[in-house]
Design brief:
It is a single chain. Helix content is 81%, strand content 0%. The chain has 229 residues and is an all-alpha fold. The protein has 2 domains: 152 residues, Four Helix Bundle (Hemerythrin (Met), subunit A) (Up-down Bundle); 51 residues. The protein is globular, with a radius of gyration of 20 Å. The chain binds fe (ii) ion (FE2). Fe (ii) ion binds next to helix 2, helix 3 and helix 4.
Length: 229
């Protein structure tokens, strides 16, 4: 029998993060920085992903890293320091967009500042990719060595309980299209079993809006076939 893959607390949100960082990087590279409406749209998208990045770092800082630190003293410091520097970089990028929206900039100044924002976003994107890979190949491996799957599922429950429903719906927008069909079924069957029906219906509405109709229909069929435990 094939061994079951171990529980991961980070693989799912990391897929969503890789998705939205790619999207916003593309938008930041192609937007007209002299067009106020377009910059407002970019800022809204960036603020949305900042919220998710903050929520994700808080989940790791508040639940995952303290559990790891308690078993392996000194093991959390590197990831915590990364979270702090990534948060600072994110805040400086947000103020650049706010500055861009102030009136009085010439077209040339707006284009120059826009390009600086794009480069800074590229640094944020690259730093997150490196940070997530390290968490998946170093932090996660340490967790597997020192925690059982049951213990990790308990931490997972604490993380899920800490996420506001509206934030969870925003996560779904980015996570679902980034997953394999099997991962999607696994994630949503868990939500189906453990969330109130009205919330799960909202999740399915997000899925319908964000997935191709073929992917959504397949998902719906698979979920119907999942035995209710
Ligand atoms: Fe992290």
């Amino acid at each position: 029998m094939k061994p079951q893959p171990r529980v991961s607390l980070i693989a799912t949100p990391h897929k969503g993060i890789r998705n939205f960082l790619s999207r916003v990087s593309l938008e930041a590279g192609s937007v007209d920085y002299t067009n106020r409406e377009a910059i407002t749209g970019l800022k809204q998208h960036f603020e949305e992903i900042c919220l998710l990045l903050e929520e994700h770092a808080a989940s790791e800082n508040n639940f995952i890293l303290p559990a790891l630190e308690a078993r392996i003293p000194g093991s959390a410091a590197h990831d915590e320091a990364d979270h702090e520097s990534l948060g600072n970089l994110q805040a400086s990028l947000l103020s650049k967009l706010e500055y861009l929206l102030r009136s009085g900039l010439t077209g040339q100044e707006a284009r120059q500042l826009g390009y600086e924002f794009y480069q800074g976003l590229s640094r944020l994107h690259a730093s997150h990719l490196e940070h997530m890979l390290e968490e998946e190949t170093v932090t996660q491996v340490l967790m597997w060595q020192h925690f059982t799957d049951e213990e990790m599922l308990q931490i997972h429950e604490q993380v899920i309980r800490s996420i506001a429903p509206s934030v969870m719906l925003t996560w779904m927008k980015y996570i679902l299209p980034a997953q394999t069909p099997a991962e999607r079924v696994q994630l949503l069957s868990g939500l189906q079993a453990n969330s109130p029906t009205p919330f799960f219906q909202q999740v399915m509405e997000v899925a319908k809006r964000i997935l191709t109709s073929q992917a959504f229909n397949e998902l719906e069929e698979e979920l119907k076939a999942v035995p209710i435990s």
